[in-house]
Structures are given as structure tokens and as C-alpha cells.
UniProtKB/TrEMBL annotation:
Lineage: Bacteria, Bacillati, Actinomycetota, Actinomycetes, Micrococcales
Name of the protein this chain belongs to: Peptidase
GO MF term (any one): metalloendopeptidase activity
Domain (M23ase beta-sheet core): residue spans on this chain: 116-180
Organism: Enteractinococcus helveticum
Domain of life: Bacteria
């Protein structure tokens, strides 16, 4: 059976963001097909030097407040025209983990996965949009606590602000996780390939939008 064609999206941000865990490099991009994650992609906000935050000696040994990162609180935009079918933004933004603290944090990932979908994606907005003969649901995840700017049932346009970049859920530093599935019930849905403005960027690419 031929694979589904990609869902074409607009980039869900302005400014400079670096691509991580891209399906252009491997599928499943995040090492699992659970929860429709096969074609998921991460975007990390960076400064003019390509850094998410200065890396100091303290970064090597201690966790860091999310406010220390250049992209914490940056606006996140809808990548499609559609209808909001899910909003959750009550989870706290936890500290970021780089250097040695990231090793300890990685060891707790299995526990978060066992706790289910919400423990992994944290605060999020789900947007339903047209796809082939049916619909697709685009998930924008790890949003900042209390930052949702939309409500369930609301129609949104591509480029409209829907929340802000945060560090909730299974996240080592503030970033945006995005993936698309074929239904509203995320735990039962199947992954849909995605592309942005007709292509999918590789890991390490810095996307700049103005």
C-alpha cells in the first residue's frame, strides 16, 4: 500500500528555530510509533548565534530555569486553517536539563511514557484540518503554562497565535514539538507525514521566519 501523502503545513513560528528529531533523517523520528509519533518534528528557538541559551559551567552540572532560554515564551502560531479540538495548558514548566543532568532526566523517561500521552506532551493545542478525503489533527506540544490563546471549538487561521513555547511534559529544554495524526483520539490515531511549505527540513537546519 502506498504511503499517505504529506500534510502541507506553514511553519508555526516567527524568528530563528533549529530543527531537531526530524523525519527527514529517520522514521520514526522520535524512536517510537506510539501515539502517532512516527513523523513528529521538534523546533528549538535559538538566538543569532544558533544557541538556545549560553552553555556555562553551571549548565554542565545543574538544571536550569526555562526563563534562561531565549525561546521561552516565544509565540507559537497555527500551521493550518482549522478548528481547535483540544486545549490543555495547566501543567507547570519544569527546569531544563543539559550536560550531566540530562542523563538523570533521560532515566526517568520510561516512567513518563508509562504515565501516558499527557505526561509526554505537556501543555498542548490540537487543531483539526482537512486532509485528503477526511481530516487530520495537528498537535503542538510542550507549550508554556497558561499561554493558550484559543479555546476548543474555535476556528483558527494559519499564522494565528495559539500559545507560547514552553518546557512542559517530556522536554529537556524549551521547544515546540509538532506532529499530525488521522483522528482526535490521539492514543488510537495513526501518524500522518508532514511537510512545511512543500519540504521537510533536516536536523540542524535553522529555519528563520519574519
Amino acid at each position: 500500500m502506498a504511503p499517505n501523502p504529506p500534510l502541507n503545513l506553514s511553519y508555526p513560528f516567527d524568528g530563528r528555530w533549529q530543527v531537531r528529531n526530524s523525519p527527514a533523517n529517520r522514521v520514526p523520528s522520535h524512536g517510537t510509533a506510539l501515539f502517532g509519533l512516527s513523523y513528529a518534528i521538534d523546533f528549538v528557538p535559538v538566538d543569532d548565534d544558533g544557541r538556545s541559551a549560553p552553555f556555562t559551567l553551571g549548565s554542565l552540572f545543574r538544571s536550569e530555569a526555562p526563563e534562561a532560554f531565549t525561546g521561552f515564551g516565544r509565540p507559537v502560531l497555527s500551521p493550518v486553517d482549522g478548528v481547535v479540538v483540544g486545549v490543555h495548558d495547566i501543567e507547570a514548566d519544569h527546569h531544563a536539563y543539559r550536560g550531566f543532568p540530562s542523563v538523570g532526566y533521560a532515566r526517568t523517561q520510561r516512567r513518563r511514557a508509562a504515565e501516558g500521552w499527557l505526561a509526554l506532551i505537556g501543555n498542548h493545542v490540537l487543531i483539526e484540518t482537512g486532509y485528503r478525503t477526511g481530516t487530520a489533527v495537528v498537535a503542538l506540544c510542550h507549550l508554556k503554562q497558561g499561554s493558550a490563546e484559543v479555546t476548543t471549538g474555535q476556528r483558527v487561521a494559519s499564522g494565528q497565535p495559539i500559545g507560547r513555547c514552553g518546557n512542559s511534559g517530556n522536554s529537556t529544554e524549551p521547544h515546540l514539538h509538532l506532529h499530525a495524526v488521522d483522528g482526535r483520539y490521539i492514543t488510537q490515531a495513526h501518524a500522518i507525514p508532514i511537510q512545511f511549505d512543500g519540504s521537510i527540513p533536516h536536523n540542524g537546519t535553522i529555519v528563520e521566519r519574519r
